[in-house]
Design a protein that fits this description.
The complex is a heterodimer of chains A (about 500) and B (about 350). Chain A has about 500 residues and is an alpha+beta fold. Chain A has helices at about 10-20, 25-65, 85-95, 165-175, 210-215, 225-240, 295, 305-320, 330-340, 365-370, 380-385, 395-400, 415, 440-445; strands at about 115, 120-130, 135-140, 145-150, 185-190, 200-205, 210, 245, 255, 265, 270-275, 360-365, 465-470. The chains are: A alpha+beta (about 500), B mainly alpha (about 350).
Chain lengths: ~500, ~350
């Protein structure tokens, strides 16, 4: 250890501090002047000092194995703190050896600098032109790597500047590093940099999105494949939630899949950082209608990661049947479909739901009447079992818990990863063993799909108005016709 | 992890600023200091929490390492960085809020950088002039002035984003410092005294022309601020090399300790410089305390230094005129370095 004998710095730091305190104005001025002169030749000295310190620096670089990016030395990050005053540098060099004894973590935060031009990429073909703008497949000229270019939609008439959703998306993707989250490589701009109008996000390219695979596959995914997909989705979401990020637009068309069976979450246009506990006023206009949690439909302004877990439940159902689980035509219809599948909320199953803004206009069968009627309303699990007869008991319990009306009953992403469903046979299939599909994004334009889009920012929040659910109580008739068709003959087990 | 680290300036960027910019270093420092002060003042008037304003300070400092200072009006860049960070935070502010606040701060009615508001540094100085009289007409904002401010604001916003590759991530050392203080049991002194002093050092360091926030990671800044605060309040620090617990080595700590302590003296001197420059420019005192590009140009003329093009239009031409030189010199420098390295490893 470095003992008192070597603690020259402590003394000198103290001295310097004292000195600085005592310094009067004039001395300060003199010092500044001297420093100015010194700095003029300092840079020259710095280079000499650097050359001399190269050997030592290399030694130090070896010492910090935590860092990954020591690729190139001339351009690479300096091993130690940035040195602005080279004379100090030279003086400090001998003391630096005293650090060899203690291993300090070095944090590598990267650097900052200008955007590159989009001209570094060759456009190959359009992938999609959706509500969020335009996505194309492109090749980086320098490396030949294929990427996805997503153009940030900018309304020139919008006088609030660059859209905050786009900026959030960029920032969140930059902050994220997980194998199940799509990687942002860089942001590039059009060639005319006098006004920044053409902004492109460069993302890693994946061949498919889950939605088009589901639409085109003749047979549904095998149980083992569903598990693999869900596990990947869930570990990505667990990462997001542990970093206080809500995705707020999870749906199959935002889940990408490559030909190696790897799933990645994409499209963070709705995502944002949300502290725990959540702030009191978040917009309810999030998540595409078919994947929107009941508390959002009921107008909750304070919500958390549970809304993503609801979407996971919807995706789970969709993976099993190849069709979106809850295809409501509008907010009221969506809520009706939810209650058909999950049962009506009661004060016991979801305490406090009546206090949500839109719940007041719902007419639900009063709890007294439903309890008096001999047939208790079936539990969510029973309804789901009826709809998915091929799902194992563990699968039903997982799906039912994800689709709990009461957000606090839904499992968190990390709890879900531990669920028994994933440990039962059939075991999740290895990613490498996944079947491959013809890539539409790679070759041809995709057909437009009829999924509703995620709500637009600034859109008016829909008032549910007076809705009568009293006829639904205990009957659930209309849900029956959508039950599993032709079940029982699925011998395609692994 | 991303919440604990910042992207740092490369040695090349720091070197470039010192050697290639057309502005003398002390003028750059004066601009830097007064613009950062302006940003802080605007943050206060906009009722933004310091966590937001401080991020804007850091963003602004980064921007000026990438683009020349004279390419936009200093107050516009300051407003744009506040606007951008506030927009991404839970406390967005409208362009009109910013226009009002900045037009007030830049008016002669505001006390910003007014001689009377300077802290008394010396007893021998004459008594400060009276505070400015408040003339609301000074900062009345006609619609066309607002519109042109708004346009400049948006242009600067996208310029900043372009220059920083859309990376607006800033980690502040403030929360870390409090956590470290808790770990140190507040050095057995009054919690609020030492915490306030520590945060004061961190906030002052934002104004430092040494750009401490761009050269050190938050953990180092936090430790140095605690060290300084402990010295100030006379708290007893652990005997051992406690900074190593927080992954800061003695060399970096010493550098930051001195750097943070010197801001006060620098700041006073720079305020004097700014006031002198304002007084030297015609009508300078009639335009409020903030230094403008016009003041800098006047100062340069007095010194007989001429700026190339790129200083008197709204600006992008400044970039073009400087870059080729930079690139060539950079290339030469890198080759020198490589050679030195090869020789070093050969011997």
């Amino acid at each position: 250890m470095t003992g008192k004998g070597k603690s020259r710095w402590a003394d000198s730091a103290e001295d310097a501090a004292l000195e600085a305190q005592l310094k009067k104005e004039k001395e300060e001025k003199k010092r500044l002047k001297a420093e100015k002169a010194r700095k003029a030749e300092a840079e020259k000295k710095k280079r000499e000092a650097e050359a001399a310190a190269v050997a030592q620096r290399q030694r130090q670089q070896q010492q910090q194995q935590q860092q990954t990016g020591n690729d190139d030395d001339a351009n690479g990050p300096p091993a130690k703190r940035r040195r602005l005053s080279p004379d100090r540098d030279a003086a400090a060099a001998p003391t630096a050896s005293s650090n060899d004894s203690s291993k300090l973590l070095r944090f590598e935060g990267g650097r900052f600098g200008k955007c590159r031009s989009v001209e570094n990429y060759d456009k190959l073909n359009d992938i999609e032109e959706g509500a969020y703008g335009w996505v194309a497949r492109a090749r980086e000229i320098e490396t030949g790597k294929v990427v996805a270019l997503k153009r940030l939609k900018i309304d020139p008439k919008d006088r609030s500047g660059l859209p905050v959703t786009g900026l959030r998306e960029i920032q969140i993707l930059k902050d994220c590093s997980h194998r199940n989250i799509v990687k942002l490589k860089e942001v590039v701009v059009g060639d005319d940099t006098s006004k920044i109008e053409n902004i492109f996000i460069v993302l890693e390219f994946l061949e498919h999105d889950l939605k088009s695979i589901l639409e085109d596959m003749p047979e549904p995914f095998l149980a083992s494949e569903v598990k693999t997909l869900l596990l990947q989705l869930c570990s990505g979401i667990a990462y997001l939630h542990s970093h206080y990020i809500l995705h707020r637009d999870l749906k199959t068309s935002n889940l990408l899949l490559n030909n190696r069976g790897q799933l990645k979450i994409a499209d963070f246009g709705m995502a944002r950082y949300v502290p725990d506990p959540p702030p009191p006023k978040l917009t309810q206009l999030v998540v595409t209608l078919w994947y929107r949690a009941p508390e959002l439909l009921l107008g909750a302004a304070r919500y958390g990661p549970e809304i993503d877990m609801w979407s996971v439940g919807c995706i789970f159902g969709e993976l099993l049947t190849r069709e979106p689980l809850l295809q409501g035509k509008n907010e009221v219809d969506e809520l009706t479909k939810i209650f058909e599948l999950c049962g009506l909320p009661t004060d016991e199953s979801w305490p406090g739901f009546r206090r949500l803004p839109n719940a007041r206009s719902l007419r639900l069968p009063s709890s007294s009447s439903s309890s008096s009627s001999s047939s208790k309303p079936p539990s969510t699990g029973a309804l789901i079992r009826a709809k998915f007869p091929l799902l194992t008991a563990a699968g039903v319990s997982l799906l039912a818990s994800l689709l709990s009306l009461n957000p606090s009953r839904r499992p968190t992403a990390s709890e879900m990863l531990e669920h028994e469903y994933f440990r039962q046979d059939p075991k999740p299939k290895q990613e490498a063993m996944f079947p491959t599909f013809p890539s539409k994004a790679g070759q041809e334009k995709r057909r437009r799909r009829e999924t509703p889009n995620a709500p637009q920012r600034g859109q008016k929040v829909q008032d549910l108005g007076q809705v009568d659910f009293s006829s639904l109580g205990g009957i659930f008739g209309s849900g029956r016709e959508r039950e599993e068709r032709g079940g029982g003959f699925s011998l395609r087990m692994v | 992890m991303s919440h604990m680290v910042n992207p740092l300036a490369t040695p090349e960027q720091l070197y470039q600023r010192r050697s290639f910019s057309a502005l003398p270093t002390e003028l750059q420092d004066a601009i830097f200091f007064s613009t950062q002060c302006l940003t802080q003042a605007a943050g206060l008037l906009l009722q933004l929490p310091q966590s937001v304003t401080a991020q804007a300070n850091v963003l602004l400092a980064r921007y000026w390492l990438v683009e020349p200072m004279m390419s936009h009006e200093f107050s516009d860049i300051s407003a744009a960085s506040v606007y951008l960070i506030a927009k991404l935070s839970p406390y967005p502010r409208s362009p009109r809020d910013l226009a009002l606040v900045y037009s007030y701060l830049l008016s002669p009615s505001s006390t910003f950088f007014h001689p009377s508001s300077a802290p008394a540094s010396d007893d021998s100085q004459p008594p400060p002039p009276p505070p400015p009289t408040n003339i609301p007409n000074d900062y009345y904002l006609p619609e066309h002035v607002y519109n042109s401010f708004h346009t400049r604001l948006l242009r600067c916003e996208s310029r900043i984003l372009y220059a920083l590759s859309f990376d607006t991530h800033v980690s502040l050392p403030h929360p870390l410092a409090i956590t470290y203080l808790q770990a140190l049991d507040f050095l057995n002194t009054s919690k609020s005294t030492i915490s306030k002093r520590t945060l004061a050092y961190l906030n002052t360091a934002l104004l430092s022309p040494q750009m401490l926030y761009l050269t050190s990671q938050p953990n180092a800044l936090a430790v140095a601020a605690i060290y300084n605060a402990a010295k100030d309040v006379g708290a007893k620090m652990p005997e051992c090399e406690w900074w190593e617990v927080f992954d800061v080595d003695r060399e970096e700590l010493g550098f930051l300790v001195v750097g943070m302590r010197s801001v006060d003296g620098w700041g006073r001197k720079m305020r004097e410089d700014v006031e002198r420059m304002k007084a030297g420019t015609e009508g300078g005192s009639k335009r409020g305390g903030m230094i403008t590009r016009r003041d800098i140009e006047g100062e340069l003329r007095r010194r007989g230094i001429s700026l190339g093009n790129g200083n008197n239009d709204g600006g992008n031409t400044g970039v073009g005129s400087e870059e080729p030189v930079d690139m060539e010199a950079e290339m030469a420098r890198r080759m020198d370095e490589k050679m030195a390295e090869i020789e070093g490893s050969a011997s």
